[in-house]
Amino acid sequence: MKNASVIASPIGQITILADDEFVHAITFAETDITGLTENPLTLIVAQQLGDYFDGRLRQFNFPIKQNGTEFQQEVWRNLLTIPFGETISYAKFSAHHPLAIRTIAAANGKNNIAIIVPCHRVIGSNGKLVGYAGGLWRKQWLLQHEREIAKRGQTELKF
Questions:
Q1: What is the largest CA-CA distance in the chain?
Q2: What is the H or E stretch that residue 103 is in?
Q3: Among 41, 75, 116, 119, which one carries the catalytic annotation?
Q4: pTM assigned to the model
Q5: What pLDDT is stored for residue 154 in this prediction?
Q6: In the chain, helix, strand, coil percent, each to 5?
Q7: Would you give the DSSP letter of residue 144?
Q8: Of the candidates 112, 158, 123, the residue with the CA atom closest to the CA atom of residue 10
Q9: What's the sign of the alpha-carbon dihedral 77, 82, 83, 84?
Q10: Quick check: is 154 catalytic?
Q11: Checking DSSP bridges between strand 122-123 and strand 88-89, what pairing results, if any?
Q12: Nearest to residue 140, comparing CAs of 130, 125, 150, 149?
């Protein structure tokens, strides 16, 4: 990767890493971007993320590609089918591979394209928030934000 953009968001700094064709990572983790420059793709992603946080965008439209096994790729493709503003339990999400629930959870945790590949929409079977590389507080914020925009489910008061 030779390109990067960094944006401020309501849930902290976000780093976008890409080449000329694909976005390879969107992360909350501190990332050394020394020597990397913005390009048209990272600027498009930055704009779309801004629109998402402003409540004007529900679906992203740019090319993504992350390295992983075929199984991980399948899990990440399936994450993209979870509708905006909705959640699904790990048990239901793994129904097509019921014996692989832990492997699916591990693949979910290795997702490098936060928000766009919506691993934050997968929750525990008991409705509890579980596992999110960006921190559970971010997961809660993202789910609350999407519910408010989609006008689905119970929302919390913001002060």
A1: 45
A2: helix 101-109
A3: 119
A4: 0.90
A5: 54
A6: 35, 15, 50
A7: H
A8: 158
A9: negative
A10: no
A11: parallel
A12: 130
